[in-house]
Amino acid sequence: MDNHNQTMLNEFILMGITDLPELQAPLFGLFLIVYLVSLVGNLGLIILTKIDSKLQMPMYFFLRHLAFTDLGYSTTVGPKMLVNLAVNQHAISYNSCATQLTVFNMFITSEICILSAMAYDRYVAICNPLLYTVIMSQRLCHLLVAMPYLYSVFLSLMITTKIFISSFCGFNVIRHFYCDSLPLISLLCSDTHEIKLIILSFAAFNLVSSLLIVLVSYILILVAILRMNSAEGRHKAFSTCGSHLTVIVIFYGTLFFMYVQPKSSHSLDTDKMASLFYTLVIPMLNPLIYSLRNKEVKNALTKTWSMLLRLPHWQLGAGPARPSCRSCRPCRKLVMALKSFCHLAHITWLLRSRLEALISKMVACERYCLMLSHQPQLLQLLLLKAQAEEGL
Predict the structure, then answer these.
(1) Which residues form the G-protein coupled receptors family 1 profile domain (predicted)?
(2) Each residue's pLDDT tens digit, 338-379
C-alpha cells in the first residue's frame, strides 16, 4: 500500500448524526432502544425458527437468514454510532473503517438477494402447491442462501480493496456516521472514475435484478390468487405474502429514495436520515412485521414463552381449554396419523394448514380429541369440507 496512505491516515473522523450537543443524549436514548429491539427481535426470530418443529419449512429457513443479515448490518453500524453519541468520540481507526465497510456491504448485498429468494419461495408455494416440497428441496434452499453470501463476500472485498489501495489526500473527515463507499471515495486523491463505475454498476445490477425477480414472482402470484374459487383461499394467500410484501416495499423504497433521486435534491441531512432508516429502523421492523402478521410465528412464540415460564401451553390461551388427553391411546394414534398426513407431498398448503389447526385443537382440548377419535366419520366430514372449500 502507498506509504503516503499509511502514514498520513491512521484514523478517520466520522461526522456523526448531529453537531448539536443538546441532541446527542436524546438521540442516544432513542437509537439505543431501536437497536436493542432489533437485537432481541432478530435473535429471537433466529432461535425460534431453529428450535420450533412447526417452523422447519423453506419459508422460515429464508426468514432465519433474513434476520441474520438484519442483525449483521445493524450491529456493524449501531454500536459504533451509539458510542460516538455517548462519549462524543468520533474517531475510527483505519483498519476498523475498512472492516466496517466490508462487513456492511456484505450483509446489505446478502439481504437484497435473500429477499428475492423469499419471493420465489412464495411463488412456488402458491402457484405450485402440489410440487412445493419437491421444488423447494433442502438442497435448493441451501444453494439459494449460499450463493448470495459468496457473491456478497466477493463484491464487498473487491470494493474495499479498490478504495483502500488508492491514495487519500490527508483530509480524514467522513461526512457520514459510518464508513460508507461514496463518502470514502470523496477523500481520495487518485482517479476515482473506475471505482465509481464499479460501485454504480454492481449497485444497479443488484437492485434491478432482485427487483425484477420480486415483481415477476408477485405478478404470477396475483394471477394465481385471482383464479382461486374460494374467497377464504384468496385471503389466506394474500396473508401469506403480506409480511414479505411489506418488507419489500419498505426496503426497496428506502434504497430507491437514496440512490434514484436527482442530484439536485440530494442533501447531507436527507442522506443521513435515509441511512438511519435502513441501517437501524428496518432491522427493527422486520421481526415485528413477521411476528405480528404470521400466525405460525405467533403460535411458536406463545409456545416457547409458555415453556420458559414452565406453564402448560393451554393455560396461555384465551378460551377455557383443558389439558390434553395423555392416557387415551386412540387419541394419540389419531394425532400421530394426522401429523403424518400433513407431511405428504401431494396435499396443498391450504389443506395442510387446516389439518395443523385441527391437530392443535385436538391437543389443546380433551373432549374434542375424544369426540374425533371415537367418531371417525366426523373427522372424514371435516376433511371433505376442507377440500371442498379449497376448490379441489
Answers:
(1) 41-290
(2) 555 555 544 555 555 655 565 565 545 544 454 555 555 555
